[in-house]
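Let us work through a complete example step by step.
Step 1: write down the sequence.
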Amino acid sequence: MERDNNYNETNRLQELGGSDFEIADGQPNIKGWTIKNPQGETIGEVEELIFDVQSRKVRYMVVDLENSVLDLEPRNVLVPIGLAQLNEDDDDVILPNVTAEQLRALPVYEKNRIGRDTETSIRPIFGGLGAAAGATGAAISGAAHQAGDTLTGDTNTRDDFYEHNHFNDRGLNRNRRDLTDDYTDANTTRDLTDTDYTDANTTRDLTDNTSIPIIEEDVEIGKREVETGGARISSRIVEEEVEENITLREEHINVERTPVNRPATEADINAFKEGEIELTEHAEVPVVNKEARVVEEITLDKEVTERDEVIRDTVRKTEVDVENLDADTNRPRLDDDDDTYLTDEERNRNRPTNL
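Step 2: predict the structure and record it as tokens.
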């Protein structure tokens, strides 16, 4: 499949806005700040910040040139973070060595469209400028053009590309160093003296009492109980109609008169007196009797199970590389048997002669 040069195949660069990341505590969020040149003229505004997901460092500022007084076309462009400095007192970003011609030569930034072609076209425009450039001017050297070729190969890593001074953000707070003695980088906090902090390509002059804290994070894993669900049982009374067929018995009295003609007997003569005969009728009626009975029981209980889970996280620690420098030559002091730093003439002179 053909490579899309407008797509950052490593997905390392993202806009800070809308991402899951935010500016670290104690660091100024310069989004929305006005960008000016050293003369106080407005260049534009910080529209957005582009950061590296892997290293979690800001790489570019998205600069909106709409309100520029330098007769620039209104558009969004990318400016490497290493070219910027914060104003000493106001919420302004200063571009000390960036000219209008350089800003005019920058390509238009399209949202979330940062590819190899875009990045490699930006570096030669600013040449050797960066955190270590100081006030040396804005001249573009041939070496700077060659440095921009880092991303044109087929390699998947861009670490060497972002080692350039264009992306060194340590000079961002240089004008505000009198306001705080603490310099905070992405991984640790270092207490520096006024003479402790210099540019990326110079040497720190440390006092005898200067120390660098070695910090290592510890991970503590515990447990807490959370609600994951449950069950609720409620009861209610409902009525339903029932029916049953039964047979009922009823009594009925029938009076029957039969005409006769015969001589009266002695029994008839004895019964020949006043009297009355009473006969009672009976009938069955239905009787309803209700009895409550338990037909089912519902019980709630809980079953506890256990499971093993592997918790993974990352911890950070400080690693220090110590390089001893020779006091006379400022060359690394290597082992006595190591002559890799010597010239051919010195190496031959030190080589023992077999007699």
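Step 3: interpret the result. The first strand starts at residue 13 and ends at 15.
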